[in-house]
Amino acid sequence: CKMAGELSLKWNPKNLEIKTRSVEKTLEPLVIQVTTLVSSKSLKKRKGKSKRAHVLVAAVERATQNFVEKGEIIANENPQIKNEMLAAVEDVKTAGSSMSESAREFANDPFSSAKRGTMIRASRSLLSAVTRLLI
Question: How far lies 91's CA from each of 14, 71, 78, in Å?
Answer without folding.
Answer: 30, 11, 19
